[in-house]
Design a protein that fits this description.
- This protein is of the alpha+beta class.
- It folds into six domains: 48 residues, Helix Hairpins (Orthogonal Bundle), CATH 1.10.287.610; 227 residues, DNA ligase/mRNA capping enzyme (D-amino Acid Aminotransferase, Chain A, domain 1), CATH 3.30.470; 104 residues, OB fold (Dihydrolipoamide Acetyltransferase, E2P) (Beta Barrel); 73 residues, DNA polymerase, domain 1, CATH 1.10.150; 78 residues, DNA polymerase, domain 1, CATH 1.10.150.20; 80 residues, Rossmann fold, CATH 3.40.50.10190.
- Helices cover 35% and strands 23% of the residues.
- It contains 24 helices and 26 strands.
- It is globular, with a radius of gyration of 28 Å.
- About 1% of the residues have low confidence.
């Protein structure tokens, strides 16, 4: 019910938001007021017809809200944990002659939602099963959550808040220091959902999948869980994917899920089997810990036993020193692994790790190497009192009950190496041929001490030419690479400085707001920066603190003396690709890489996406006849596939070379 209407509503969301963003953020008009009003009225009519108002609807303004703490609330009934099995036979025996629903067991954060009179009234996390945290303002920022539904009674449902692997990867890619990157989508989701400022939640692309309807009085579900799930779909909720199973087809269904998880974007750590017969499931009652009407199936992890060789302490540019377990190589899930992050000192101590210990290792969700168990527990690893890089004193800090090791030396070379590596990266100053290893050598030799030194290589010509692995040609290429980056943009400089929270996207927003004028930015208040759409208070604080630091600003002044910052603004007539979305795949002949072509498209108002959809203008692929997944998707959707040359000719784009 309402499937076609919901699909059209989601399409209108995208169209209207793009038009608003272009008009208010970029001073561009991609459609007339008449066209906008017509589409807006269509959305209003669909919302009235279905009684559904989806999260993020242009017809509803949900303001950002910051709180000092998350209030807690006791659940009406305890949220029990499911009993688990890793045996396919046991799963079939549990089902017996009944029919059930076999669905993904999503790996995120369980949320209880309550709707009153068709409006979302409350969202509460699972917490410890008895008491959860109220996160209603954050739930209103979930990408796909209905804020208003047609059912006017009290509706209570449960589901999982998740962040997909694709979004998880993008968020991590914007963080240059691996030590600062998020460990897995579940941890990122948990932190995103439980933010004190729901503006941050909005940026993380959290989605909600309903998996259980708790209460909806007056609705006849014909004693069927499947009917309940279909009803939730009709109200506008995305539900967890499920298959109806019986004793005869359950093994086939498990095998289907097992194959599908290899490419499934939503984190899942197993399956859930629930009786379709509601009355029967209720009649079974609960154990002290688990309901008897559902059971979880966990994938059988491939575990290998190996020997811990040593703990590698890996410093980062923030000063955090992370323990990494290095062990004898083993085969897991078809690959050879020999390292696993231990995360922090607390985790290392809880595992009682010791050199030479026998440990069992596995891949969490068949992806991330982890230590499952320490079979020896000698607990003899010594925590270094001095940084392994600079030799200065370390200190254990405790935050949120987790102990971490920190290097206290602000001049620690690794901090500088990591910062310099970010500075020369593709999204920042974009130097050619400067690897982290090379930067480390230059730092050790005193060639690079601060950002401005990247433009003073001629002062160290003799030293560079005589370094191992270098020579006249390497030196000349290095200088030429530096010269090419002198003429740059404010967005690239901001990204290169390593200011906390300022990634590629935010740097562009900030630069555009201040018309590429760094002097205006340096004088701006935290409030002015924070009010930029898509930036927020946290980043505003980071930037103002950076410019308030005399050591950093003096270093920046010396860097700016070496650079020419150009304005990126263009007139409307040059924005020939406004409103168009492109996908690029394969190698290119006329651009250095795909990022270069992406920048050219964005400079003309277009967008570049990583996947083909019905909104794609065209797929750019020099192998137009390949059998790649993107080509197949484009063909199935009737999307044009153009070679690089044909694309440049059709859209009037100049090649780089």
């Amino acid at each position: 019910m309402w499937e076609a209407e919901q699909k059209r509503m989601r399409e209108l969301h995208v169209i209207l938001k793009e038009a608003s963003r272009a008009y208010y953020a970029n001073d561009e008009e991609i459609m007339s007021n008449f066209e906008y009003d017509k589409l807006y009225d269509e959305l209003v009519a669909l919302e009235e017809k279905t009684g559904i108002v989806l999260s993020g609807s242009p017809t509803v303004e949900v303001g950002y809200e910051a709180v000092d703490f998350l209030p807690k609330e006791r659940h009406v009934s305890p949220m029990l944990s499911l009993a688990k099995t890793k045996s396919r036979g046991e799963l079939a025996d549990w089902l017996g002659e009944k029919e059930g629903l076999l669905s993904w067991k999503l790996d995120g954060l369980t949320i209880v939602l309550t709707y009153e009179n068709g409006e979302l009234q409350k969202a509460v996390t699972r917490g410890n099963g008895e008491v959860g945290e109220i996160i209603t303002p954050n739930a209103k920022m979930f990408l796909n959550l209905p804020l208003r539904i047609s059912y006017k009674g009290t509706l209570v449902l449960r589901g999982e808040a998740v962040i997909g692997y694709g979004d998880f990867k993008k968020i991590n890619e914007a963080i240059s220091d691996p030590a600062e990157q998020y460990k897995n989508p579940r941890n990122l989701c948990s932190g995103s959902v439980r933010q004190l400022n729901n503006e941050i939640t909005k940026k993380r692309n959290v989605r909600f999948f309903a998996f259980s309807l708790v209460n909806a009085e007056g609705v006849d579900f014909r004693n069927s869980r499947e009917e309940q799930m279909n009803y939730l779909k009709s109200l506008g909720f995305e539900t967890v994917f499920f298959k109806r199973v019986n004793r005869q087809n359950i093994q086939e269904a498990i095998s289907w899920f097992e194959k599908e998880i290899e490419s499934y974007d939503i984190p899942s750590d197993g399956l859930v089997l629930t009786y379709d017969d509601i009355a029967y499931a209720v009649s079974l009652g609960n154990t002290a810990k688990s309901p008897r009407g559902s059971i979880a199936f966990k994938w059988q992890d491939e575990i290998a036993v190996t020997t811990l060789k040593y703990i590698e302490w890996s410093p980062s540019r923030t000063g955090l020193i992370n323990p990494v377990a290095v062990f004898e190589p083993v085969e897991l899930e078809g690959t050879t692994v020999s390292r696993a992050s231990v995360h922090n000192v607390s985790v290392m101590r809880s595992l009682k790790l010791g050199i030479g210990d026998k440990i069992s290792v596995y891949k969490a969700n068949m992806i991330i190497p982890q230590i499952a168990e320490n079979l020896t527990c000698s607990d003899n690893v010594e925590i270094p009192e001095h940084c392994p890089v600079c030799g200065k004193e370390t200190m254990i800090q405790e935050q949120n009950e987790a102990k971490t090791l920190m290097c206290l030396n602000p001049e620690c070379p690794v901090k500088k190496v990591k910062a310099f590596t970010l500075f020369v990266s593709r999204d920042a100053m974009n130097f050619d041929g400067l690897s982290e290893m090379t930067i480390e050598k230059f730092t050790e030799q005193g060639i690079i001490k601060e950002y401005a030194d990247f433009y003073k290589f001629p002062d160290h010509k003799e030293k560079i030419v005589n370094m191992e692995g270098f020579g006249e040609t390497s030196y000349r290429n290095l200088v030429e690479s530096a010269e090419k980056t002198r003429k740059t943009t404010l967005a690239k400089v901001l990204c290169a400085l390593g200011i906390a929270g300022v990634g590629v996207a935010n740097a562009k927003l900030i630069a555009r707001h201040f018309d590429d004028d760094i002097s205006r930015l340096r004088k701006a208040t935290k409030e002015e920066i924070s009010e930029i759409d898509g930036v927020g208070d946290v980043i505003g604080t980071s930037i103002t603190e950076y410019f308030a630091n005399p050591v950093k600003t003096e270093e920046l002044d010396r860097l700016l003396n070496e650079l020419e910052i150009v304005k990126t603004g263009t007139d409307a007539s040059a924005m020939t690709l406004t409103g168009k979305t492109f996908v690029i795949t394969g190698s290119l002949n006329h651009f250095k890489d795909r990022s270069a072509l992406k920048e050219r498209i964005e400079a003309k108002g277009g967008k570049v996406s990583g996947s083909v959809s019905s909104k794609t203008e065209c797929l750019i692929n020099n192998d137009v006849n390949s059998g790649s997944s993107k080509n197949k998707s484009a063909k199935s959707l009737g999307i044009e596939i153009l070679s690089e040359e044909d694309f440049l000719a059709k859209y009037g784009i100049d090649a780089d070379f």
